[in-house]
Amino acid sequence: MNLRLLSILIFLLAFACSAPKVEDPFAEVKPEETRFTKIALVEGLNEPMELEVLKNGDILFIERNGSIKRFYRSDNELVEIGFLEVYPDGEDGLLGLAKDPNFEENQWIYLYYAPLDGPPINRLSRFTLVEGLLDRSTEIIMLEVPVFRGCCHSGGSVEFDGEGNLYVSLGDDSTPFESDNYNPIDERPGRPANVDAQRSSGNTNDLRGSIIRITPQPNGTYTIPEGNLFPEGTPNARPEIYVKGNRNPYRISIDQRNGNLFWGEVGPDADVDSMRRGPKGHDEINLATKAGFFGWPYFVGNNKPYWKYDFAKQESLFEFDPNAPENTSPNSTGLTLLPKAQPALIWYPYRESEEFPMLGEGGRNAMAGPVYYREDYENSEVRFPGYFDEKVFIYDWMRNWIFTVSLTENFEYDTMERFMPSTVFDKPVDMQFGPDGALYLLEYGTFWRAQNDDSGLYVIEFAPGNRKPIAKASASVQKGAAPLSVNFSSEGSQDFDPEDQLSYSWNFGDGGTSEEKNPVHVFQENGTYDATLTITDSEGLSSESKLKVEVGNTPPFVAIEWSGNTSFFFDDEKINYEVQVMDPEDGEINEDEISFSIDYLEGGFDLIQTGHQEEEISIGETYINESGCKGCHAIANESVGPSYTEVSKKYLNQADASGYLYDKIKNGSGGVWGERIMPAHSHIEDGKIEQMVDFILTLENPDFKNEKLPLSGIYSLDEPNKKEGYYFVQAAYSDKGGNGIAPIRSQSQLVLRHPVVPAVQADEYKGSAKANTDVDQFLKFTENNSWMRMERVDLKDIKGLEFMLNPGSVEGSIVVKAGSLDGPIIASTQVLSQASRPAGSKRNWFPVEVKLQESGDIQDLYFIFEANSDVSIWNTFNLYSIQFKK
């Protein structure tokens, strides 16, 4: 070899060996909790169940009521992409979700749910997302499991391993309440089937009480992988079973590197050991490195044995043997001799555990999360450190903790420690590491079977070094005539390193500067200025936040004079109205340039609450947002499908455009804009589709269906008295600009809702929860002095209130205060209880009327529950609705 070339190679090798490597300072050292940041992505969910993080950072998740939702991480938008009609009682509903290993190519997801109609079954199906939405016509039913409706233990977690095998956890479908909360093995003839878990968890010929493992095939069928508990062809045994002997394996996870299966087993409720029945209840964290039988209903924890109990004679016969368990129940169709029972990895009772005292005491609901490997997430600034390598994350839904567990080389328990002990977790229900190495988390929220305000989707990110501060600038006004005085604020800015000293620097863009946190600045000259807030920490890291301030043109003044109540509409009301518009630069206003509309919208009041009320709202666009169409189409930019502007251009001035587009949306179409197919939207009401079409066609033809109202007159509120509908009144005007500043558009809006307001539509709650029924929702007051708040309620002409309520077994009254919790009392009920129910009434709900005292016009209203007896999450005072009466 050429000596010169050899010397160059040696030099390069030496340089490579001496080049600095990216070190992990927390490979061995436990990081402090302040290096983790829990970030809320979306909150106020309705019983979230399972999630999947996609490669692009979007998150799919499901809610028990049947909703499939997608959180678009790039623009922080939540869209419902599908809905299944599900059986909602007991612990059933939409329970499990998994994406296919090749999801980015085939768009397949797997759902485990309880169908609403038909025989009592739970079903595993594969669906295809078409243009980002769940296409129900693509459902392929893979597996159906007959169940006993009414109670309990459905399981339902769905996960893939690294080899493409699909796991589904199934509960024992048995009631715990008729066996004194020990093991339900009641074999008496004539008894309900669900009092004997030997027919399910102990039955090798039944999928319930198992974690099954199958290999899905492209045609929607499945095969049986090698290594399941019972080889194919074994008499009286289902080959799908991987793990048997489960009570309620509610959340499972799989180590993607080695296939180890983890699950949390929700255990029985007995609080004390019984000499002749068996051990007290324990929850378990289990690990299966291979197929096995894990004991229920014969053993719990580390194989603590139950007794064979004769319910007819009330005699205990013998203790079950974990080395040779037998199922002799007449309710079983499977093998008599069962495999040797495997002990749990971790187990703990209600009271403090002798073996694992760090887990605390109290209610319990064990769940298993993922195993972490740092090197799987290269080039990420937020991935967890190597300290957590090979550790499994476990969590408890009742105790609101997360622990990390270290295992030995033989996958036996070694140690565990609390993760983020100072952070609040509200009923964690599923977690998964995303492609960025951050931990994504669903929290169910405080109350069972409820839409909780403290539920949500969160991400936990890690920062290994100094964290950059976050700058957030705001201004009291950003447009106006010179001289323009602006109050600037840095409120909301933060730094996650508590030891950092922050400095604030403002550059207002006109030569002015300030070092104050919240300065006031006066812009003397007309022009457009970029005001910049820069925040710098002690180590020199900084971030900026910019605001545009336009000086020289005053926003138009737009107001709607409305003679009626501005919060509610009433039957057959005639309203005098007038639109007023003024602009100092424009002078006299051309009325033809003022837009004004009054529309009646069918659907929930919350549609408008989640909209962008600072802008004009199109009724059609509102329905587009509601239907989830933004998942495939944008207003101006091309997405999965064409933009709405492109569609509007294509059908500009086409006579049959309205009917044509209506048919495409209602019945689906393909081939117009390429090979992609738009699924049918037959579930959307006809009137809503018509409004959506009108909005699209108006984008390129503003005069399309331009039915302009006069700017003053009398309007009749004569729509049918529908509790879910509302009137939307809006006026807007764009001025002509001035002094080099572009035109500014201002608007004024009124939202008139039905005077019967469901309690769950209040704006804020404290000590209360939204409870789900089979068909509706109501509010539970779960502690004394709990309350709900309604923002800016117009009390003009309101004389009284009617509460529709059910006191349950609690005595108490509802007090209404104006303005604040310390404000004046403007109404209150008498002390109410079940005895207050009107004579002859058989309804759970009954009305209570109260008079309203004078309180001014527009107020925040606080509805406070004052209890005269004990209140708890199980013993509540319930409110269904409030009617505002003239």
TrEMBL record:
Pfam families recorded: Cytochrom_C, GSDH, PKD_4
Sequence ranges of Polar residues compositional bias: 197-207
Region (Disordered), start-end ranges: 182-218
Residue span(s) of domain PKD: 469-551
Extent of the signal sequence: none
Residues in Cytochrome c domain copies: 615-700
Highest taxon of the lineage: Bacteria
PROSITE patterns listed in its UniProt record: CYTC, PKD, PROKAR_LIPOPROTEIN
Iron among keywords: yes
Record key words, sorted: Electron transport, Heme, Iron, Metal-binding, Transport
Name the record gives this protein: PQQ-dependent sugar dehydrogenase
Organism phylogeny: Bacteria, Pseudomonadati, Bacteroidota, Cytophagia, Cytophagales
